[in-house]
Specification:
Number of domains: 1
Structural class: alpha+beta
Shape: elongated
Helix content: 25-40%
Strand order of the largest sheet: 1-3-2
Distance between the termini: 37 Å
Number of helices: 4
Order of helices and strands: HEHHEEHEEE
Largest sheet: 3 strands, antiparallel
Length: 85
């Protein structure tokens, strides 16, 4: 059974941070700067994240490698990295 099949549709804040591979303070900092994934507030203390939203947020910065004459490079908004074969 894959991870996608056993995850619930929504995760609490701590679980969402673990899912994204970051600490809770880092997740909170990103959300407070409007740079993180969308959150769902249920009451004063319950913060939830949709797994679908977390995946979409991670995928928005995905880079595709390109091969050009013996050089692999990445495109997109991140820093440009190249490697010669």
């Amino acid at each position: 059974m894959s991870q996608r099949e056993i995850l619930p549709a929504y995760l609490h804040q701590k679980e969402a941070a673990r899912f994204l591979g970051m600490s809770v303070p880092t997740l909170l900092r990103l959300v407070n700067k409007s740079q993180g994934p969308p959150r769902i507030l249920k009451g004063k203390r319950c913060v939830m994240y949709s797994v679908e939203d977390l995946r979409a947020w991670m995928d928005k910065d995905k880079e595709q490698p390109r091969y050009n004459g013996g050089i692999w490079s990445t495109n997109g908004s991140g820093s440009r990295q190249t490697a010669r074969l």
